[in-house]
Specification:
homodimer, alpha/beta, 7-stranded parallel β-sheet, about 45% helix, globular
């Protein structure tokens, strides 16, 4: 899942994301809550409609970003109080508040409020944190079940072209008819609309730090709460890749195979292929987009830093095996020039390519799964490490 | 002409510019000379190929930007010495050097090296400056005629698919065949290739400050040199709009109607419509792109500052009469959120809309000219001032 922190995958227009084959993107609750605010997004019809994204959306719980971005945070059983990194104002996230905000945003998948345990951490600390995450998962689910119908489209019919025209009342005379339904739809598959108000799906999150038995216990007790999907959180926080894989493998033994299994915040291309081969269904990471803005491009020949002087006269495409619109049209020499000149188009083109590389990687994985043999995809990707 | 200073119309991919109907864009010699350097662009096959832009290109002479951007410039009869605004290195632009650089960049239209007279300026100072610009025009033309075949494609055949594949030697096995010819063509219409090496067209520039008789004399003596097109420079430098129009009208009386007549560095939408109605064929301005990056959007209802709080919940498009991809898909509320959040997508979408508004304005002007009646276009645009 490409990460669209503040209601935008940084530098990439939504139609390009569609062309790239992005089926689901992620929004960050912490950012959207602070700006533009979840109540504004609710009034605008929810995040799908606000950002004009008709495909699936997932929002995180806000917990992880409070830990990584905000100032003066204080964790208690009730929740996490923090100061905004934007204006210093004080806020409190609780499991209930996180659910309220995420329901207002109206993503298709929302996440239970958890504590991402710091690394390294002593066993006792990790157990206490894991236990609290389990209690928060229960509170998240209780609030969610009681309020899940309070979605942005809860008080109106959706999916009807005549209602979508409300966005543009007064402008019906223009040539927008053909696109307006598509562009401004609330992003809810029409089959849901027939059976009442569609609601998000709430996923639980496994914690447990780097202790296999705690991971196992966390997974077992989270599964007992019966979520429609499960995430494995608290990884890629500084541990070795072997440890990451061990923790994922441990959780996957417990998490049901017939439910989506989602590893949060990973990873490099070769890692996501490995995790998929282990049985992981979903992943998100800022790496392809953030790296792109820093000039780091992922290719079938390995990573390249486009600002390197050796690309100054390189007339080849970023990746000779890539079919994306950037590799089809622009040379490495041009991309280097854009980056070195701090041109805004650098971020646009670099991000498009990196997302194409990631999404094509996962397309190859899905294809290999269909064929029943992941060995080819695995051997290709491992060679890039 | 949208301005593509450093080989990119800031924040907009080339395929979007094509979709917007941009037929010609402008590159800045000063910027391209400093970075990536005209010799590098020459080696890459010229600016068309370097930036993958198959339509027309115009480069300015570098003179104006030396005056406005560089440090420690010193003007003499020989030319202008200056220090780079990027790294402080010393450089000298002369008419001959400007021609050499522009021929290396390989635009379709290149501009004579002129001095943009400061405003306000005494009559004597303006006359001396105008006289020097005329001498520089002669030197530009002499050098150009002697060296115009030194274009980036001068030592090879162009327009042949097999040569264009040189860009991607070794990658022929990929799926790029269908696009490579189009994407990497040098941007030269094939009819030129049959009759030898195509060369740029050199335009002369009228100066003369805000003195009608000097403008007239400058125009007459520039026309005597017989250029294939003429620009009117030194305007929009702080004078009143009435004075701008008076100077344009004065020059247009002299400049031949059967040659392109180009006013440099203008203007607001209502101004470019007026100038076109007066007989101006070409204009360039950073306004639509620069304003977009500052959140100022041009619409059929007037200008709007998208960061204004009144747009926070505005579900309408930027311009209800605009058919561009931004107005078709995104609300003012979303564009405001992107801008306030300093998201890179703000510059992308705002620029696309503003360029669409400008290019659509000129499309309407061309249509009105074909119909023989500009009054409708003029009255609509004047109401926006």
């Amino acid at each position: 899942m490409p990460v669209g922190t503040a209601g935008t995958v940084k530098a990439v227009p939504q139609d390009v994301l569609e062309d790239l084959g992005a089926q689901i993107i992620l929004g960050n609750t912490y950012h959207l809550y602070l700006r533009p605010g979840h109540e504004l997004v609710r009034k605008m019809g929810g995040l799908h409609r606000f950002m004009s994204w008709n495909r699936a959306l997932l929002t995180d719980s806000g917990g992880f970003q409070v830990f990584s971005l905000s100032e003066l945070r204080k964790v208690s059983e009730e929740g996490v109080s923090f100061r905004s990194h934007i204006d210093g104002t004080s806020h409190l996230f609780t499991p209930e508040r996180s659910m309220e905000i995420q329901i207002a945003l109206g993503a298709d998948i929302i996440m239970a409020f958890d504590e991402c345990t710091e690394h390294p951490a002593e066993r006792d600390r990790v157990r206490r944190s894991m236990e609290m995450t389990l209690r928060w998962a229960k509170r998240s689910k209780d609030y969610f079940e009681a309020h899940k119908h309070e979605v942005p489209w809860g008080d109106r019919e959706i999916g009807r072209p005549e209602n979508q025209e409300l966005n543009h009342k007064g402008h019906e005379g223009t040539q927008r008819e053909s696109d307006s339904g598509k562009a401004y739809a609330a992003g809810i598959p029409s089959e849901f609309v027939q059976s009442g108000i569609p609601t998000p799906a709430l996923f639980g999150i496994v914690q447990g730090g780097m202790y296999a038995d705690l991971r196992r216990e966390s997974a077992e007790r989270t599964v007992e709460m019966d979520f429609p999907g499960y995430a494995i959180g608290g990884l890629s926080v500084g541990e070795s890749r072997e440890k990451t894989m061990e923790m994922i493998a441990t959780a996957l033994e417990i998490l049901p195979k017939d439910k989506p299994r989602y590893v949060m915040g990973v990873g490099y291309p070769e890692e996501i292929v490995k995790y998929a081969a282990m049985g992981v269904d979903m992943m998100d990471c800022v790496l392809p987009t953030r790296a792109a803005r820093h000039g780091l491009l992922f290719t079938s020949e390995g990573r390249l830093n486009i600002k390197n002087a050796r690309f100054a006269q390189d007339q080849g495409p970023t990746d000779p095996l890539c079919g994306c619109r950037v590799c089809q049209r622009y040379t490495r020499a041009y991309l280097r020039h854009l980056f070195v000149s701090a041109e805004p188009l650098a971020a646009v083109l670099n991000t498009i390519h990196n997302l194409a590389f990631y999404l094509d990687t996962m397309k190859a994985v899905r294809h290999a799964i269909t064929l029943g043999d992941l060995s080819g995809v695995l051997s290709r990707s491992v060679s890039l490490v």
